[in-house]
Each structure stands twice: as structure tokens, then as C-alpha cells.
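Regression report. Comparing outputs from two consecutive submissions.

Submission 1:
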Amino acid sequence: MLAALRSAVLREEPYGPIGGLPEKVRVDRGKDFLSRTVTAAFGLLDVTVEDLPAYTPHLKGTVEGLNRAVESMFLAALPGYARQPRPGKRASRPKDEVLLGFEDFTARLLDWTLWWNTEHCPAPLRGKTPLEAWQDDPTPLRDVPAADLWTFTLEDAGTRTLTTRGIRFRRRDYAGPWMTGQAGIQVRVRFMPHHDHRIEVYHAATGRYLGPADLADQATDEQISAVRRARAARSRRLKKDLEASQRERYAAVNQPEAPRRLGALPTVQAEAELAQAAGTDLSDLAMPDLIPPAAPPADWRTPPSLVTRTAPGRPAPVPSAPAPGRRPGSTAQTTEDGDAS
């Protein structure tokens, strides 16, 4: 009942344009309309509820006329219609007639409602459709934000976990700008029947309302921009927190003394971390003592860390002096006997 009230009051898409808060609601002694929950909801919206006396259909003639039109123009043409006219007026229906499912019936009813409001011109409206008559009515309207009617929805059973992709509901992903930084919490979902473009989300443990979530693959440009702004703001906030954590701070003093850095590292903790880091050094894990590196040439400069691990290299060859009577750079020629000439 509250979901139907929400659908009737909201004028935004896809509920509108007809809607708005009424000043008075007349109830024909229906127990579902007179329940504590519904009357409390009307009271919060400042709507007067009037319980009509029995057998007074003339006090709500517009509704009665619409009900007769629905029955005679829509329901009577459906398969399985039980309220047949008097015998002789219409042929009986076959017994093997295939009845409509709930989804098919709902789709046909919505199509008929659209036709009634936008194409059909009832005689009392003098050539106007109900939508045109509504738009020409100068009566001021009272609107209520959709966020204030989040409880006027159906509650889905069970809890769900909010992830980085949003909320998974009926094999679809729903996301909202308020979800940034909320991954991991348990939530519950409220929804509107036949309107799967948006769901209402609240905290599973506290019942606190968190906000709406729109279908991820049907989000509008404004919704996508809002999500991006929220993510950018969170990124800037995390960056500032990181910069603040890296900034050095010192304890306040009231007399001259050596500066004391806040968050100083104790000696025991430093030694423990260094010992743990030493076990991950690749140079130590390579076991150089098992296969020592080859000795470098003597004219190379050996790093101090490798001097004790390498054997001394062979001395570099010294070029010999040229023989007497030979020009520097000339090569000796040998004879067939191997003597140099």
C-alpha cells in the first residue's frame, strides 16, 4: 500500500507527470487503507484521511466511474474474465482458454492506463484527455522529495554486501555516489515493484537510511558525474592523509632541549625489521661462498665488499722491450727453420 502511495505521489520519471500530495484522501472503509502504518504515513505527509460511511459510492463518484471503465473496457476483454453478462448477451468462453500470467497482465494494464491518460477523451472532459485536463488545472501542487519516501517501498528479504561494484540485486548492479569508501558493509534493499531503475539502501544493523542506488548500466550523465566527483573527492582526501603521515613532526617543548621527533622508532623494533629485511636480500640468498666469483684482472678496481671474497688476480702482462736494431712496432719474420730474421 505504501509503495502504491509513493508511485501516486511522485511526479518525476518514470512515475509522473501526474502526482503530488493530496489535501484529503477518502477511504471506502478499506481495512488496508485504515491500518496504523498507512494512516501514520498520511499523517507525516499532512494528508487528511476521511473514512466514508458504508454504502455511499456517490461520495467518490470519479473513482467508481473509473472502476467501471476498467472493468468494461479492459477486464472484460481478457481471457478468463469471470463476471460474464446475463445469458444470451454473449457467448460463453471455451474451457481450455489460456489465462494470462502476472507479468503479461501487468504489461497490458500499464499499456491500457497509458492509452486512457494520453489518447482517450472521456465525454465529461469535453475533448481533452485526462493528462491534458490535469495540465490545464490551475490548482497548485504539493511535491515531496523522493528521498523522504524511501520507506514507502517493499523490503527485500536478506542482507547484501556492498562491494566496489555496488550492490547486486536481482542479477543487476546498482551504484550510487554515497557508496564511495563504504565497501564491505552489510545493507538491506527496498524497492518499487515494476520500477527497477532505482533501489533504496539502508544499513542492515542500524536501519539507518544510506541513500538511493541507480541501475549501473542505465545511469544518466548527471548520475555518472556525481559518482566521479565523489571518487575524486575521496582520492584527494586519501592523498592529503598520505602527505600528512609522511610529514615529520616534533614534540612540543617549553624549555631548550634537543628536538624529539614524534613517532620515533625504538631500537628493538629497528633491529627486528633490519634482521627480517636481511633475510630477503638477493645477494645473500645467492650463496657467493659456495661458488665464489671469478677473480677480476689486477688493473680493475674491486669493490671493498668483494675484496675478501675473491682471489687475487694474475698480474697484467708487461709489454717486452723491442730488440736492438728493430724499429718499434715492427714484427719479426721467421724462416723455414723457425729462426727469426
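Submission 2:
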Amino acid sequence: MKKSVLSLIFSFLFSIPAWACLNGETKELKDGTMIYMDFAGFIPRGHSFNNPEDLEKTLGGLEKEYKRTKNLDYLSDKGYILIILKKYKEAIELYKRIESIAPGRYSTASNMGTAYELMGNNIEALKWIEKSIKINPGSHFSSEWIHANILKAKIKGGETYSSEALMQNDFGSKRNPETNLSKEELYKLRKSLFYQLNERISFVNPEDKIVAQLLFDLGNVAFLMKFKNEALGDYEKAVFYGFNDPIIKQRIASLSAITDGKEAPKDVLDESTEDIIKVGLSVFSLLISAIIIFIFRKKIFPMLK
């Protein structure tokens, strides 16, 4: 009886974090420093990094920990912060040092690619990003193929960056986006586009044609998945980044009509509704846990002594 009661209580208590985790992704370094916490949802806003003064202090601590432990994760994190601080050459030299000590680390290849791109050396960046994909193709929600396509498009040059070139897909030119992708494929593409855009927006300011195009495409994916508020947010951000094709106005207008309930699907929830349900479930689980504890308090509290 004791075990069953405690198991029931703990099952409710431990289910709460899974339902109530409404914050976005976080980045914790090897030394425990949290350098950003993202917004929830799938509208890319970029990382909100710690201020430069705090990041500079973190650099010193990471170097000390590496000297103490010889754990290369500390050096790799130091390189990541150097990139955030726009010290790209210093970061590249550090990652070259790491590569000479331990060749083939994913973080080395991935971050070297990012640093080279931010310096404007797209050819070298592509070399390292492709190497990172070979090392760990599933990293970053298996989205680095988009990063590689971006670099290929930049190397090729030209004023336009098409959906086909950047993500090997196109959603047509009609008032509403069209696709042959399945729901599962759309979901995976949504995660990949969001990850790449959230990273890129952290370092690339508007206007930027590549970011604008990918935001438009992310909006199209959200449109097709019936996440109306999310699609509108993506479209508006695409315009902010310089997307000026007239088709976006048509899709925003069409999306507004759906938001008004004219074609709203009954079997798909948008992101805001999902969040409300999660909060409701969290509150409900807390109440149930409290009731169980109250009912069995005479048996539970002696167990805790």
C-alpha cells in the first residue's frame, strides 16, 4: 500500500515538468554557465545572449577549468563565446588548436564553419559544415543540410535565393501555399527551418535575403500545418528581413481569413491553444497531487519521518 500510494503521488509530481515546460531552448556551458534562454514557440527570434561583460568573465573561467581538467569541452565552449563576441579569428585559431589535439569533434567542425561564414569565407565554411554533417548528420534536428545549401547559394552568388536552392522544396505561387509533403515531413522541415533560422537571426541583422526567404518558407509550412498565428508571425518577420514578393501579402490576407474561422480545421490545434492546454494540465496535476497528499496524509507523513 505504501509503495502504491507513493508511486501514484510521484507519477503526478514528475509529470508536471513535462507538461509545464513552456520556455524555449537553453544553452548551458560545461562550467554550468547559462548563456541564453530562448522564447517558446516556433517563430524564430534568435538567442538572447548574456551581456558582453559577463561573457568576457566566462571566458577566463573556461580557460582555468581547461587548465585544471584538460577537458576540451571547456575550450570548445570558449570558442563558442568568442564567436558570440565576434572574435572570429581568435575562435578559429582556438578550434584549430582543438582539432590538432582531438581531430574529428563535431563541435569543432560546426563552430569552425559558423566562424568562417561570419568572417565572409563561405568556401572554407562549407568545407567545415559538410565535415560536421559527416561526423553527426542527426545534430541540430538533422538541419545542417540547410546550412550547407545556404553556403552553396552564397558561393554561387546572384541576387535571388530560391526555396528550391535553399531547402530543395517550393510551395508554389498561388494565394495559398501548396505541397506534396506529408504531415510528418512538414513537421520535420518546420523543426529544421526553425533551428537554422533561430541560430542565424542571432548573428544576422535585417535586411538579409536568405533569412527573409527562409522565414517566408517557414511561414508557408506553418500555414500548411494550420498554425495560423505562427504563420503570421513568420510572414511578418520575413517582411522585416526584406522579403518583398507580392505573394506574401496574398498569403497574409488568406491567413487572416482562416484566422476568422472561415476555413479553420477542427482537428489541428495552433501553438497558443497547445500552450493553454499544457498550463491547464499542469495546474490540474498539481491539484490532484495535493488532493492525494491530503487524503493519505496520515499514512504519508509518517513514511517521511
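Expected: both submissions complete independently.
Actual: both completed, but the second showed a warning that disappeared on reload.
Relevant detail on submission 2: The beta strands are 26-28, 34-37.
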